[in-house]
Amino acid sequence: MFKYYILIPSLTLLISIPIIFYLAPSILPQRQIPISLPDELDDLSLFHKAIAADSTFLKKPSRKHPSNKFRLGSTTVRRPKIAFLFLTNSDLHFEPLWHKFFNASDPHLYNIYIHADPTVKITPPMGVFADRFIHAKRTQRSSPTLISATRRLLAHALLDDPDNAYFALISQHCIPLHSFNYFYNFLLDTQKLSRKMEFPSYIEILTESPALLDRYNARGENVMEPEVSFDKFRVGSQFFVITRKHSLMVIKDSKLWRKFKKPCVKIQSCYPEEHYFPTLLSMEDPNGCTRHTLTRVNWTDSVGGHPHTYQPPEVSPELIYKLRESNSTYSYMFARKFSPDSLKSLMEMADSVIFKD
């Protein structure tokens, strides 16, 4: 009998070990990926090249800076371009829909850049997406690596083409809600020029949120001081459309980055990618930002910090029309998240609804 009493706990322990290993990732707090010194130096080198190239471009008397005074229709000044920055850790599931979006436009009006997590095997995209990958590094949700990836995309786009005037950050779960021409004409409508003859950036900047204080102290109490006091801490959508001027501000920054790259001690409150960009631009140029995003997201039934994911039965013309609606004076241009298997439904109404402006 004594042997059985010893044997039962031993068997229970042996059975429990594999279960613990299986469940550990979902039970234990996720360990944040650190940003190594070599990666940091690599990015800094890229940023310096982009900044230097932009300065050289500004000194050329024969060219106008694309983020300043536009002369649309002029034969002496090139038309500004939009840089589409795709940030992904999976296949570009909506590649066919985006092909329709881009192929109906002038190829000289846009550039595409893709940052794909190198630890994930991704099917090489075709068409306009072919060979558009930049040198990427590993990314992780709720960590500074997403900030790094975005800054990396901005720097590559700034360095690659001086005519890139707007920079749109896009998720792999994101779809367009309008045609390219509609989006382009919306951004570069001269009526949107400020008194300084500058176009605005479309980035969500919110001053209030139920969990804002917890997120502010995610790296430890008052760790963000003195560079970022709580009254200057902002929150907003990770996805934005910003000007060249503001893109340069982002890659030139080192003061705020020193704080935001610190690892979080409260992982459940750590979403640096939703705070860094709105906080930085709110501090540097609040009047140059609309404080609204152009990407529609449904948070009504979010799970684990993820927004609602639209499934095929939900996809309809009525949904597209509804997603376009905004509290601002303009329409939403993009929407997320959509499940990969909703592509068929989206393609069926692409020409008749989505791209029919």
From TrEMBL:
GO terms for molecular function: glycosyltransferase activity. This is Glycosyltransferase. Keywords: Glycoprotein, Glycosyltransferase, Membrane, Transferase, Transmembrane, Transmembrane helix. It comes from the Eukaryota. It is a single-pass type II membrane protein. The keyword Nucleotidyltransferase does not apply. The chain crosses the membrane at residues 6-24. Its main location: membrane. It comes from Solanum stoloniferum. PANTHER family: CORE-2/I-BRANCHING BETA-1,6-N-ACETYLGLUCOSAMINYLTRANSFERASE FAMILY PROTEIN-RELATED (PTHR31042), GLYCOSYLTRANSFERASE (PTHR31042:SF62). GO terms for cellular component: membrane. InterPro entries: BC10-like, Glyco_trans_14. The keyword Transmembrane helix applies. It is found in: Membrane.
